[in-house]
Structures are given as C-alpha cells and as structure tokens.
Amino acid sequence: MSLFGALAVSPLLGGCSAETGEPDDGGGQVSEEELRSEEESFTPLEATDAELTRAKEPERTFDHELTLFAIPAPKLVSLSWKSPGGLARRTLINEGFGFSRAIGHVFVRVDCGAIAGKPATSRQVGQTSTGDEFRTMVLKEKAGLGVLFRTVPGALETEAELDATLKDRYASGRIGTIRYGISGEACHALLDYVKEYDKRDVEDEYGFVRPLYQEGSGCSAFGMSFLRLAGLMEPYMGQEWKFDVRIPMTLIGGTTNPGNEVSVARLFTLGRGWASPPSRTSA
C-alpha cells in the first residue's frame, strides 16, 4: 500500500468555513483604533546584530534528519489573521509592493543516512504557486476572500530556489527552523512520499487543500504533512500554529459565490470581524 493510502490523514491546516446566516456589516469601514490594534498585536520582532551574526545554517546533528523551515511575512507589514480586513489589507499591501514570500513560506529538508539497501540521500523541497491567478481572481473576478476556497496551478520548488531563499533569510535573520532526529526507515519513507507526491502530480494544485488526500496543497500544509507522516505532531502545534476562521458569505465572491462581487476597495476598508458559528437551538 502506498504512503498516501496507508497514512491518509487530515492536514493541520483545515479549510475555512463559510457562514450563511451572518448578517452583512453594511460595508462598515475599519477604524483607526482597529488599525492600531492590528499593528501593535502583530509587530514583528527585530533581530539584534548579535543574532544576525549567529544566523547561519546549522550543522547536521543527526544521522537522519527532518528540518522544517518557517519564513514570516515581510517585516514592513507582516500578516494578521485577527480579522478579515486585517488579513486582506496586509496581504494586498505585501503583494502590491512585490515583496518576496508576501504571505510567508514553509518548506522542508530531509537528510537521510545510508540504511540497508538504500544509500545516503537528501531532498529540500517546498510547495508553491505559479502564475498570477490569485491576482486575477481578486482584481477581475472580485472574488474577495473567496480565493481561500480556490486552487491555482502549483509546483514543487527546486533545491536551488530554496538555497537562494535560505541564503537571503540567514543574512536577514528572518527564518525559523525546527530539526528532528528520526529513524532511517522513517527518513527514507519521507523521501518516497515526495517522489509519490511528484509522480501523482499532487503539486499541480495550490491552495487550502489536503496533500495527504491528493487534493493539492499550500506550503504550510505540505510541510506539516511531513510531520504527520513521521509521527511528530504534538498537541501544541494545533493550538499555536493554526487559525480557524469562518468567512462571511458577503465577503466571498467569484465562482465560489456567484452573483456576489467584493472589490479591492472594500477589502481595504473592511471593519467587521469573522463570522460567528450558527446558533444551536434545542429540539
């Protein structure tokens, strides 16, 4: 049985729920207090000169390793999931400035020593999107936050592309890593997973979907799938690394909610919060 069939489990990043019963906010605009709150709550940490001097690729520690790399969104604006408006504004600004890794990024490196029947080998890989389909959805379709329900063409990044990212990020200090020592069998199984993922063209679909169900993947779900397959998931990851949000139907346009248009201007001035769960009434 393949890894997909034997270990088909949900990724850490679940899909967003749309709430149909949530009243519209009437296009209310964001207040200065809300903008200030966003800025204060998500102010990125500044790396010191001493930390930047020490920031370099760590030496290999284990015979068989899995390393998860996490890159934050650009420091000037960062990223906020506190509210629909906060998410939309910061994403649009980062994209508008043409920042690299405008919404952050996650990728992995698998370093395996030799075991019986298998030589030492490694793979550094991440999931990314290709093209400007999301931009078209927002600007022309006026899909609004409906883009979170859509997929676009994707691809696996090459080692050279990620090496360039690492060189830049180690220089700036804006990168986080978690390194795990794993068994040789688990390590080589992760490399087999990447081969199967590529063979089945799962990387062709990029979005908030589930890689272990062969639906495609975003970069973070792709990275987390390695932790799941290696049995490294811990409860705190679901509590601290995940955002569950309910997107109001009024903010979803395009093919996901035909007939509703959400302009860029409205995304910039959103002052409402996420939708609330539907009320439960006893029978």
Characterise the protein shown here.
The protein is α+β, with helices and mostly antiparallel strands. It has one domain (29-41, 60-268). The chain is built from 10 helices and 9 strands. The chain has helices at residues 3-6, 32-41, 49-54, 84-96, 133-141, 159-172, 184-199, 219-229, 235-240, 264-268; strands spanning 17-19, 65-71, 105-112, 121-125, 127-129, 151-156, 176-181, 205-207, 246-248. The protein starts with a helix and ends in a 15-residue tail after the last helix. Residues 1-27 and 38-45 have low confidence and may be disordered.
Tally of alpha and pi helices: 10
**Global shape:** elongated
Note the main sheet.
4 strands, antiparallel
**Oligomeric composition of the shown chains:** single chain
Keywords:
alpha+beta, four-stranded antiparallel beta sheet, three-stranded antiparallel beta sheet, 9 strands, disordered N terminus, 10 helices, 283 residues
Task: Give the helices and strands, then pairings.
Blueprint: H1 3-6, E1 17-19, H2 32-41, H3 49-54, E2 65-71, H4 84-96, E3 105-112, E4 121-125, E5 127-129, H5 133-141, E6 151-156, H6 159-172, E7 176-181, H7 184-199, E8 205-207, H8 219-229, H9 235-240, E9 246-248, H10 264-268
Parallel strand pairs: 1-9
Antiparallel strand pairs: 2-3, 2-7, 3-4, 5-6, 6-8
